[in-house]
Amino acid sequence: MLNSIEYFTLRGRLGAGPRKPTETSAEGTDQDLLWFLVDCISNGKSEDIFTDSRVKDILCRPFSTSVFDDIKEGVLSYVKNGERTRHVIALLIGVSALKLFIRSNWTGPPLDNHVTEQLFPDAKIRTELSTCCLKALEVDGEPAYHLASNPALLVLANILLVEACSFSSAQTAPLWACRCAYVHQLVLLHRCSELYGYINDDLERLDTQKFFQDGPVPETQFFIEAAMYHLHHFEVNKAQSYLDRAKQFSGATFELTGALGKRTYHQQTSLPQLVLSVRRSCNITGPSTDQHCPRSDLPKDVTLKDDTIMNEIKFSEEPPTECSLTADEQCLILATCTLKKSLSSPEPLRDEEMMAYIAKITSDPKAWSVHFSSLFHRSRLESKNSRRVERAMSQLQCLADAAKNVLPAMDTRQELFFCTALPTTWSVEKELGHLFFSLGATKSALDVFLKYELWEEVVSCYIQIGRRDRAEAVVRERLRAEETVLLYCLLGDATDEPAHYVKAWELSAQKSARAQRSLGMHYYRKKQYEQAIPHLVKSLEINGLQMAVWFSLGYAALHAHDFELSVKAYKRVVNIDPDNYEAWNNMANAYIRMGDKQTAWRVLKESLKCNYEDWRVWENYLLVSVDIGAFEECIQAWHRMIDIKGRHADAKVAHILVKAVSGGVVGMTGRSARSLRKKLLELFGRVTSGITNDADMWHCYGALYAVPAEGDDVCEEDFERTLQYYQKAHRCLTHKPKWEREVESCCEVLENSREIVETCLRGTKTMTNAAKKQQLLSTVRVTIRGTLSVVKAFEANYLPEQIERIRPLVECVDAKLDELSQCLA
């Protein structure tokens, strides 16, 4: 019977609770209280639980600053000294508190404060109670949102579900502890690692115990829920793994495909449009969420009213009839869409793909929370589009209003809540405020931020419009009412004075990750990296789940030449976000500075997996590849850079590659570089076709043709190519205006002239065609004599030390020309 009660609590269906046994329980017994709780939950009257004297006996304590410690002590004593019935009673009270807190801050309908008043009836201590709640909810120095409604309910849920979990024999206790920790995480201003540790441990325990098999929660729901928890904490690999398992159990497959259709009213021709195709296998097993919320009770889907873009795509042909999606399947589509957003950087194609996922859900909504979250995601995407931004604004306002409506009931709204990443009421309003600000409606944005006391947004808004004085005034006014760590940090942001961050740190009793983060970022923005590092490190010691801070620490350490710390920081970034190519790239840079180019090369390969289109990463990969002897990868990287940029030349790398091929250098694969001659010739051909005025590249191209293929000698055709490309290099050098006046340019031209003459002499020795031989020799002699005459004509203008550098080269070229003239005689 206890199992069925727990299962009913998880499913949360009104009127579907287990029936009380016919034999009556004695009034005042644990059994009697248990059935009272079941009756309240079954009839949708969870708030009545906290008016019951028996529940008050368990929870109520005389108010003091340590009231929640006293409640915790009493609850743990109640659980430890009782049988499983008491464990389930504590679980049901905790679940009711958690659901009422979710109702107050996420789903609605609005909840009066009378629940808290029943537990803490003394109105005089209302402000002190709020302070105690916020203090109890603070984790790793990260505060909770101070206007969260009924925070005492979350504190009580924490005690009953998380603190008591290790003493509870209730089968579903670990899942509810996990859920409570997740909700707690959502009301904090920033993520913290301590709560994620609880969540991860509970998920692993549930997964190991195969909790979902033949259990109260369908496999698909459990896996989606686990995926969303990991995704919220940047663990995309774990999230992907759980979603893959969810898809396997659901039997549904999703595929983005194309279908001809029209997107605008004026479009004459149908064009391919992205659409999500869903197929379902017939071997689906297990329970599913099959109750649907009436359409009239769902959040309103605002129609797009634009004179150009249609509200929805009009397809040329009706798509094949597909099965109607269950709420679980819609939830899985939404989770996949959310994962796609985390895996890819913002770009038009990614946004179009997400819109195709969302359109599939909103076309036939089933669950309140899934529909709400889908519309919220759509609004965020459409806020970037000038023709859709008005709908996005109206939709966000409708969502804000939907949480205030009386219908539907709480349990209907909260169905699949933990699988949907539903935004809090203040998050919806904050998004609306950001949208106002992006449209230039600064006053409307500030009205929203001030109404919900989103002080970080208020300060940021004023700073962005250049009104630091107003930001400072607002924060100082709040500080006169109450001094908090967050407000002092915001005062530091507004005034750019680090002393305020120090004050926040002292006020927190050296526990605020926010204060140290702000202090570190103050020095970081001023490029005082060595001063920033200790504060960033301290912040991360308190709360390690700050990806942006880890990235900033890595960058600061890199510039401060603390390369080991930089590598450590960037490793944490890529552990949290494996697709952060900038972190991979910067980590490789740190390894290069440490002299570990082999590791740097492997790290850069990971960076390229995350971003295949950034030529700067490819350039780093190219340079490291040539340094470690990965010559084939270097050639591939160079080709890729040309694909991206259109053209690219690097004479230093080209010289190294030619030298490696000519010397038969053994690369990292153990093969001789001579085998790459053909591929390198193809590369140089592509380079010089795009860049025709690079003398060094033409010279390298010619030098490569002078290298015989494996097991062969240089043929006459290769000799002619060598000579031709050396001459092109010569033309590039001598076309430079006033080249003879610069000693370096002059010496370079003379060196090139010598190589041309030597190549011509060497190559013509074996030529059998006398006429062709004479032509080549004559052409070279005329060209080089002209070059020498220019140098000799300007010789009087050189300084003595310059003449000492140039004269040996002139004499050498003269001697080679005499030798060439003898061949013509």
Automatic annotation (TrEMBL):
Gene3D superfamilies: Tetratricopeptide repeat domain. SMART domains: TPR (SM00028). It comes from the Eukaryota. It holds the Pfam family TPR_17. TPR repeats lie at residues 513-546, 547-580. Transmembrane segments: none annotated. InterPro entries: TPR-like_helical_dom_sf, TPR_rpt, TTC27/Emw1. Keywords: Repeat, TPR repeat. Belongs to the TTC27 family. This is Tetratricopeptide repeat protein. The lineage of its organism: Eukaryota, Metazoa, Ecdysozoa, Arthropoda, Chelicerata.
